[in-house]
Amino acid sequence: MKPLNHALIVIDVQNDFCPGGALAVAGGDEIVAPINALMDDFGCVILTQDWHPAGHSSFASTHQGLPPMSMIDMPYGAQVLWPDHCIQLTQGAAFHRDLRTDADLILRKGFNPAIDSYSAFYENDRKTPTGLEGYLRTRGIEALTLVGLATDFCVHYSAVDAAKLGFDVTVRTDLCRAIDFDGSLAAATDAMTSVGVNVV
Ligand code: VGL
Ligand code: ZN
C-alpha cells in the first residue's frame, strides 16, 4: 500500500501563501485537509518551506522604486519582485497551523540572500543544488507526487526539475493553488507537460 520508492512532496503550505498572508494565493488554505489525508498513502513525506532572510533580493522592498510584481534582471536572469514574504522565523514563514508536520524531511529554500529558489531542487540560477536530489536518490525514491503552493511558481519549477532529473513526476492540481500572474498558470502547465510531468 505504501510504496517506499514514491514520495509526496508538499510545497510551501505556509501562512504567507494562504488567505491573509503577504503573498496570498486564493484558496491556499482549502488544500490543507486533503493534503493531510493524502500523507497516509505515502512511505515518504517531504515538506518544503520558503525561507528568506529579511532584505532578500527577490523582495521589491529591497530595490528602491520598483513595485511588487515588477520584473528585474538579476545576474542569473529575469526575476519577479515579490512582496516581502516567508521571512525566516516569522509567523508568515510558519506552516499553516493545520498542516501535518510529521514529515520525514523539511527542506528549506530561498535562504541565499542573492538568489531566489522556486524549485525544491535548484536555486533560480538553475545550477545551485538544494541537496534534495541526493536525499531522494540515497533513499531509493524514483517517483514523486507534488502538491501545494503555488502551482505556477514553486510547484511548477520543482516538477520540471524533478522530471529533468529522471524522476517519475505527478502534479495533483486539485491539491495545488496558483498565483496566476500574467499568464503564469498556462505557461507553467505547458512547461510541465512538455517535460513529461503528469499534470492531473
Ligand atoms: C513562491 C513566489 C515567491 C511559491 C515562493 O512558493 O510558489 N512564489 N516565493
Ligand atoms: Zn519566496
Describe the structure.
20% of the residues lie in helices and 22% in strands. Strand 3 (71-74) and strand 4 form a beta hairpin. The chain has helices at residues 32-39, 132-138, 151-164, 184-194; strands at 6-11, 44-50, 71-74, 77-80, 105-109, 143-149, 168-177, 198-199. With 200 residues, it is α/β, with parallel strands linked by helices. It binds pyrazine-2-carboxylic acid (VGL) and zinc ion (ZN). Pyrazine-2-carboxylic acid (VGL) binds at residues 12, 17, 50, 82, 118, 149-150, 153-154. Pyrazine-2-carboxylic acid is lined by residues 12, 17, 50, 82, 118, 149-150, 153-154.
SSE pattern: EHEEEEHEHEHE
Rounded mean pLDDT is: 97
Number of strands: 8
Estimated share of beta-strand residues: 15-25%
| Spatial ordering of strands, largest sheet | 5-2-1-6-7-8
Number of helices: 4
Low-confidence stretches: none
Helix content: 10-25%
Bound molecules: pyrazine-2-carboxylic acid, zinc ion
The rough form would be described as globular
Rg calc: 16 Å
Query: In terms of structural class, how would the helical and strand content be classed?
Result: alpha/beta
Present the secondary structure layout.
Layout: E1 6-11, H1 32-39, E2 44-50, E3 71-74, E4 77-80, E5 105-109, H2 132-138, E6 143-149, H3 151-164, E7 168-177, H4 184-194, E8 198-199
Parallel strand pairs: 1-2, 1-6, 2-5, 6-7, 7-8
Antiparallel strand pairs: 3-4
The chain binds pyrazine-2-carboxylic acid and zinc ion.
Compact summary:
The chain has 200 residues and is an alpha/beta fold. The chain is built from four helices and eight strands; from the N terminus they run E-H-E-E-E-E-H-E-H-E-H-E.
